[in-house]
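Hello Y.,

Per our agreement to keep a running log of every chain we model this quarter, I'm adding this entry. I've kept the format consistent with earlier entries: sequence first, then predicted structure.
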Amino acid sequence: MAANARLRADDLSVSYTRKPVLNGLSAGIPDGELTVIVGPNACGKSTLLRALARLQAAGSGQVLLDGKAIHRQSSRSVAQRLAILPQTPTAPEGLTVRDLATRGRTPHQSPLRQWSKEDAAAVTRALDLTHMAANADRPLEALSGGQRQRAWIAMAMAQDTDILLLDEPTTYLDLPHQIELLRLVQQLNRETGRTVVMVLHDINLAARFASHMIALKGGQVFCEGPPSGVITESVMQSVFALPCRIIPDPVHGTPHVIPE
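Predicted structure for the entry above:
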């Protein structure tokens, strides 16, 4: 566990209608890494991500951002350092890609600080980084699924935070668009140094793109580390009840799961 991580969960417990989802979970998100959270259905992956973003209240324990309890910090202060893209974001009909990206600047504005050159530059930079500049004036509903996800990531990038949380960003995308999107996220992590945390279901894609992985089981961290240390036959059996063989990916050399 990253001892000096800017974002961390400390003995965190969360319950829904008295049913525990996270149970005394502690984890530090390594700064500057691309971390992927994996685990079986209903193990608490999305709940953890929401708790890290202060969208889900803790029953006990706490989330710390820059050494302070996140729930005691102002929403504006948190949003200037941390952005989250939920599973199924929605936007008003007719909103263009540029309009959406512009909304990412809201945490940086106030009655005394309206739209500025810095805001315009941040939006332009976000559209360029996500390769959406050519589609900036198109409405979201006119885009493909992959383009739409890029537009939402552009909004999060325009927010210009050091930490970016993505909850199942490849949902509803076919495999080529999943890989395209994950390549983009990996590129953003490497070129901008942002700390990225994703929830993914596809273990092999997670192993290919992550630099750090956290495997959850029963609302707790079962293990964490580089993909080579997390994607093992024993972990797959213990966490997913999946008998399998692990081989090196013939193209990338990352662990590749072959179910028996």
